[in-house]
Design a protein that fits this description.
Nucleoside Triphosphate Pyrophosphohydrolase; single chain; alpha+beta; 220 residues
């Protein structure tokens, strides 16, 4: 057993073991076979909260051209100065919400995913936030909020639903701590919560429409 393996807390171990044994399939987010798309990375950081395990999420600025107001994991494009995807994810988290990289243990990379709307090839970096500390939006033109959201809130059946988008697409959705989570972030969260053994029975027939503001549409 490596030092990193030995340090992983018991509540995170089932997820790490499950992902190591069988990484989540890309499914509808499979990257193009021709290798197109801009490399990027997101930090999927789990940490302890007063109410049990939590995951770090950010709310993007409503004024952004791409994905305005959406909830996401900290992250962004891999730059030439980044040694690898892990470095990019940590750098972006520090730039966006002031996360101290020294408080994070990177555990492993998840399979690369693809976001057609933005053309990004995304590498999720599964991490343990060993020592959670106060965080906040550094540049409010990009991020307006950051929170370590308890897993118990995300898996509460009353906070789960199936998203009904104008395009006719359906997918998992969450609403917790005032955050409406859908799209790429919800798809990945849904899979990780299941693999971690945290999912509770919920009603997939419960539909919710995506708020217009999150689609970049003017108020009705």
């Amino acid at each position: 057993m490596s030092e990193v393996d030995a340090a992983v807390p018991a509540w995170l171990r089932p997820l790490v073991d499950a992902v190591t044994a069988e990484p989540p399939p890309a499914g509808p987010l499979t990257p193009p076979a021709d290798g197109s798309g801009r490399p990027s990375a997101v930090l999927v950081a789990f940490g302890q909260t007063p109410r049990g395990p939590g995951v770090l999420l950010i709310e993007r600025s409503p004024t952004l051209r791409r994905h305005p107001g959406q909830v996401a994991f900290p992250g962004g494009a891999v730059e030439a100065s980044d040694a690898h995807s892990e470095a990019a994810a940590l750098r972006e988290a520090q730039e966006e919400v002031g996360l101290d990289p020294r408080t994070v243990t990177v555990l492993l990379r998840l399979p690369e995913l693809y976001i057609p709307r933005s053309g990004f090839r995304v590498t999720p970096v599964l991490s343990w936030w060993r020592a959670p500390h106060p965080i906040a939006a550094v540049d409010r033109h990009e991020v307006v909020r950051a929170a370590l959201v308890p897993v118990a809130d995300l898996t509460d059946p009353g906070h789960r639903f199936t998203v009904n988008s104008p395009s006719g697409r359906f997918g998992p959705g969450f609403e917790a701590d005032g955050l409406f989570v859908w799209g790429f972030t919800a798809l990945l969260l849904d899979r990780l919560l299941t693999l971690g053994g945290w999912e509770r029975p919920w009603d997939p027939e419960r539909l919710r429409r995506i708020p217009d503001a999150l689609l970049g549409l003017p108020p009705a």
